[in-house]
Amino acid sequence: YTYGTEANQIGALAQNVEGLFPELVVEDDKGYKQVNYTGLQLYAFEAIKELSAKVQELFDWKSKKDIKIAELEQRIAALERSANVANAISSNQDETPASQSVSDKEFTLEITVLGNNPAQVELGATYSDLGATATNPDGGDLSITTLVDGVEVENIELDTTVDTTYAIEYRVTYEGQEAVATREVIVGEGSQENGVDIEVQKEVDTEENEQLPEEDVQEEAIDDDNIEAQLESSDPGKGQSQPTEGEEASLI
To answer: What are phi and psi of 30, to 5 degrees?
Structure first.
């Protein structure tokens, strides 16, 4: 404000001070109000002291709360550790020992053959084996040994250029148990008994005999008669006539 001079002045409004400290405001004969700044300084000093005390009190309160919060956090962490230990102990008690897993669960080792069984393959086609699977009691995959016609192999490669039949064996061993599964792979018409079935061979022989010319059949019959005659001649008791009663008397 400006009062009696052109320079700006700083001060408190008498009306604002009068509401709080009426004893610090005086009014002159012209009706102008003035503030007793000397007395106001004393009030201001006391106010600063009170504020400082309150600030310190708040600071101390916050420090105590921080300490309390830290203690609570430590207690919570300790309780969490105790709970984790208790859960771990309970989990271990519920689990079945590994040494008893097979017998207690009465586990039966089995092999699952994937794909067709028997498998039919056309001549000249490429055969891709889908393999087999076997799992332990915990569901883990087991290693399977593969054999083709009794020979252990790493990769299954079959010759499909001829009619034949292959036997693919899958073997697995676990905890003293062994399981075997077999897949039959038929290439073309397949084969039995090293490529020739006994019953089929008999039928083929019969068909061949039926297809022989009549002369060859007769020759075979004559040969059979000759063989019988030779057998009779070689037997002393056969091929000779019995003597009559008169011949027997003359011989005596």
So the answer is: -90, 0
Q: In the structure, how many helices (H) and strands (E) does the chain have? A: 6, 9
| Measured CA distances, 6 to 12, 121, 156 (Å) | 18, 117, 112
Helical ranges in the chain per DSSP H: 14-20, 37-94, 101-104, 198-210, 214-233, 245-251
pLDDT in tens, 104-149: 457 788 899 998 999 999 999 999 999 999 988 888 888 999 999 9
Residue 186 makes CB contacts below 8 A (sequence gap 6+) with 118, 119, 120, 121, 165
Across 48-66, b (16+ Cβ under 10 Å) vs e yields: eeeeeeeeeeeeeeeeeee
CA distance linking residue 251 with residue 147, whole number of Å:
81
Is pTM beyond 0.70? Reply is no
3-state secondary structure of 125: coil
Q: What residues contact 188, with CB distance under 8 A and at least 6 apart?
A: 121, 122, 123, 160, 162, 163, 164
User: Do residues 110 and 135 touch, judged by C-beta distance below 8 A?
Assistant: no
Distance in angstroms (rounded) separating the CA atoms of residues 76 and 83: 11
State the Cα–Cα distance between residues 106 and 95, nearest whole angstrom: 16
